[in-house]
Design goal:
It comes from Megamonas hypermegale. Helix content is about 50%, strand content about 10%. The protein has twelve helices and eight strands. The longest helix has about 30 residues.
Length: about 290
């Protein structure tokens, strides 16, 4: 089986390397040549591609790209890769996109006789590198069964969500909750400072209450250390909460709390923190 991979950044790179470590034949493409070289260094079964078109003959193609627009321009239309892939192949997207874009991709792939799986991811680059990345898979059950073994190589556990709509909606909702929690945690940290409570003690005690959270454990220590190295950047966090709010609007639901949190990530981006970790929202809340 020949596997193509487009997008070898913080998330895509680790997943592609997991395939190479497992001895799978991988054709890897990224606009950044250094990303390709780092991915190929994981083993001996990967080769670099000069363009996305070089992946047309693959049995399975992954994309891991920042924005819905990037995916559409790469995959859709008569010049897109889906128009060049062979019937019976499978296209797997692991990006975070909106359900409407997912539906567009799925329908276009079906017209070309190609299976589609939307498989957004649940954690960060460190977990992805160790194949400990939760995968939320959505698509036709027969397509899922066809690629389940491949998915279990790049991440674990793999959850079948039903349709692609459900998979992407869950991922957006998860990030809406997580990023809103991070903004509230930042607010709590600022209040504890004004109360004269030691930050390390505050976080230790908070973990023993109903206010405990994943963001407290993952990003609370980063706040204390002033560590804003990009793990999941402000720009990507903002993109995800924006897509989530737009998803709610499209369904007649006003995600008011998330929209308020989004305004702070917008301020962080405007302040020049877009390429810093999303914990940089802490610097905005004062």
């Amino acid at each position: 089986m020949k596997i193509g991979y487009i997008g070898l950044g913080l998330m895509g790179g680790p997943l592609a390397r997991n395939l190479i470590r497992a001895g799978k034949e991988v054709i890897a493409f990224d606009l950044n040549k250094e990303h390709i070289e780092r991915t190929l260094a994981a083993g001996t079964t990967g080769v670099g591609a000069n363009s996305a078109d070089d992946l047309a003959d693959c049995d399975v193609v992954f994309t891991s790209l920042p924005m819905p627009a990037h995916i559409k321009s790469t995959m859709l239309g008569e010049n897109g890769l889906l128009s060049k892939m062979k019937p019976g192949s499978v296209y797997i997207d692991v990006s975070t996109i909106d359900p409407q874009t997912a539906e567009e991709l799925e329908n276009f792939a079906a017209q070309k006789g190609i299976g589609f799986m939307g498989c957004p991811l649940g954690k960060g680059p460190a977990q992805a590198e160790k194949a400990e990345q939760p995968i939320f898979a959505g698509g036709k059950k027969e397509t899922f069964e066809k690629v389940k073994e491949i998915l279990e190589i790049v991440g674990s556990p793999v959850y079948y969500m039903g349709g692609a709509k459900q998979a992407y909606a869950f991922k957006l909702i998860s990030n809406m909750v997580g990023m809103t929690d991070l903004a509230v945690l930042s607010e709590g940290m600022r209040l504890c400072e004004k109360a004269g409570i030691d930050g390390e003690l505050f976080q230790k005690l908070l973990a023993d209450t109903g206010a405990d959270s994943a963001q407290l454990h993952m990003r609370g220590p980063l706040m204390l250390a002033g560590d804003y190295a990009n793990r999941f950047g402000v720009k990507l966090a903002l993109k995800d909460v924006r897509l989530g709010c737009e998803m709610g609007d499209a369904w007649g639901f006003d995600a008011a709390f998330t929209k308020l949190a989004k305004s702070y990530f917008e301020k962080a981006d405007e302040a020049g923190y877009g390429m810093e970790d999303c914990v940089a929202v802490y610097k905005i809340i004062k």
